[in-house]
Amino acid sequence: MSETSNNTPALIDETELQQQRDNNKLEKRLQKYAGKAMIDFNMIEDGDRIMVCLSGGKDSYAMLDILLKSQQRAPIDFSIIAVNLDQKQPGFPEHILPEYLEQLGVEYRIVEEDTYSIVLDKTPEGKTTCGLCSRLRRGILYKTAIQVGATKIALGHHLDDMVETLFLNMFHGARLKSMPAKLISDDKKNIVIRPLAYCREADVAEYAKIKNYPIIPCNLCGSQENLERQNIKAMLATWDKQSPNRVRNVFKSMQRITPSHLFDTDAFDFKGLTTADADSLEEFDIAFDDEIIVSEQNSLNDVIVLKEIV
Length: 310
Hints:
Layout: H1 2-40, E1 49-53, H2 58-73, E2 79-86, H3 96-104, E3 108-112, H4 115-122, H5 130-147, E4 152-154, H6 159-173, E5 182-184, E6 191-193, H7 201-211, H8 228-242, H9 246-253, H10 301-309
Parallel strand pairs: 1-2, 1-4, 2-3, 4-6
Antiparallel strand pairs: 5-6
Helix pairs in contact: 1-7, 2-7, 4-5, 6-8, 6-9
């Protein structure tokens, strides 16, 4: 009896140590992916002032955390200011973000704009409020970026958001278009960056849980469920169970585009194509690559199906 009792603390210690090792691996993975995205797209440059849009959700908390750590390690100097837009939604806990940011010692600004009332007034009953709310929020954040002297606006969208947006545009807009990692804002006055572009949502969620961020619910406005994005999320969740790396491979496909094998006549000159152009082409009339990218963790389901089609 005493032997079991004596061994118990050691077992508990080993479990805690393993959990700590797992947590460290997760943090390093997120830092690695975010760092690679920032380098690949030259998101942050020396002297930049980054306006981090902090909503109180897991993604923006994680992004701020990662950027603060990057600020300490990066070979360049850049400053950070966190900005939250208080849209006067019912029950919004105004004290949470200021207290959190003051504890971190991060410069911040809380912008108060009653967009909630505007959205309620302008949106017909039964219609989703998200579109108008998003447009109003973007306009206010763009204006705030200029006021605080920001050179870049950082948003917390992750890889899953990029893939979801790709499918939303395909399914409902008949367009091959996703969410950019870095681009000029639609007011043409700001550069928007998304440092978490290479990070999976599951990793961000687990990291937020470990860090115990003071999460503010995103449904205070009573936003409708069962939106099209939720349907896409469910589809991706099913894929993650069936073939764990399929979603990341969809994302990777957006980094390896072959215009000659698609159907956009503006992106490739099909009409003027002759055999004289052969030496300038890198790929020819082969639909499937000989080598199919398969992750170490991925089941072979996708490859098997592809071979059956061929």
